[in-house]
Write a structure and sequence with these properties.
- The protein has helices at 17-25, 43-63, 83-94, 112-128, 141-155, 172-178, 193-198, 200-203, 222-232, 237-252, and strands at 5-10, 28-33, 67-72, 99-106, 132-135, 162-164, 181-185, 207-209.
- It is α/β, with parallel strands linked by helices.
- It has one domain: Metal-dependent hydrolases (TIM Barrel, Alpha-Beta Barrel), CATH 3.20.20.
- β5 (132-135), α5 and β6 (162-164) form a beta-alpha-beta unit.
- α2 runs parallel beside α3 (83-94).
- The radius of gyration is 17 Å and the shape is globular.
- It binds zinc ion.
- Zinc ion binds next to loops.
- This is TatD DNase family protein.
- GO terms for molecular function: hydrolase activity, acting on ester bonds.
- Pfam families: TatD_DNase.
């Protein structure tokens, strides 16, 4: 397989300078940076964030030989009071060649506000016919996923455009039954390489990522360790290639 992996879910604005170097060294050639503005109060915070990632950080990544693509959207950990203004602007950002998805969006607490923001963003994804990256929380996961899939069903979005991220055994059945794609966040707190290898059939349509942020212990190229583990367990090279880049390349057209 080609040595170019795709980091399918990261947060470029939080990656340390050395982290970009490690990603490049480990063979990551492309990355998708998801939007997040923690505790955002104003729509402008998101507009500047989108421009910062697609402009400044795209250039920085390029200096390491990594092509950066972005996802744009309102993260549940920072919903501004004037969030509809961000939603209204999403089609304009999505028009750029380097913006490949809506995300990351989702629900943490099942509040009415979170549900409204998610629904609005799924409607944009449906109308623009673009993929959407959906976050799942740490707690109450099957119930939250159920709620999100109900909303998606009512919106009528094509399930094959939906990536349900931070997938694990607790929700993979719901994801597969719905026809969505699992995002595979490879780290101790989420999916580990041994669990993935033990249940490859369940996760085969997925896309690996490290979901790097600075809010927990983290490794910007952590998923490549899982790739190496899979190889040590003689996992089929075509499947490794799909999980470590091929599936993401196909969905995002990158
Ligand atoms: Zn994330």
């Amino acid at each position: 397989m080609s040595k170019c992996y795709i980091e399918s879910h990261t947060h470029a604005g939080m990656i340390p300078h050395a982290g970009f170097g490690i990603m490049a060294e480990k063979g990551i050639g492309k990355m998708v940076s998801c939007a997040i503005v923690l505790a955002a109060r104003h729509a402008e915070s998101y507009f500047d964030h989108f421009r910062m990632i697609d402009g400044f950080y795209r250039q920085l990544a390029a200096s390491f030989g990594i092509e950066l693509f972005s996802a744009v959207g309102v993260h549940p950990a920072g919903i501004p009071e004037d969030w509809p203004r961000v939603i209204d602007s999403l089609p304009e950002f999505i028009n750029r060649d380097t913006v490949v998805a809506i995300g990351e969006v989702g629900i943490n607490q099942i509040s009415t506000l979170e549900k409204d923001v998610l629904r609005a963003q799924l409607e944009v994804a449906k109308n623009c016919n673009v993929p959407v990256i959906i976050h799942t929380p740490k707690e109450n996961r099957p119930a939250v996923v159920d709620e999100m899939l109900n909303i998606a069903g009512r919106v009528g979005i094509n399930p094959a455009l939906m990536v349900i991220d931070h997938a694990h055994l607790d929700i993979i059945g719901q994801i597969n039954d719905f026809g969505a794609l699992p995002g595979l966040t490879m780290r101790e707190q989420n999916l580990t390489a041994p669990v993935l290898v033990e249940h490859l059939d369940l996760f085969a349509r997925g896309m690996m990522n490290s979901d790097y942020s600075n809010i927990m212990p983290n490794d910007p190229a952590g998923f490549v360790n899982a790739v190496e583990y899979m190889r040590s367990r003689q996992v089929d090279e075509n499947l490794i290639s799909a999980l470590a880049g091929g599936n993401a390349a196909q969905l995002y057209g990158i």
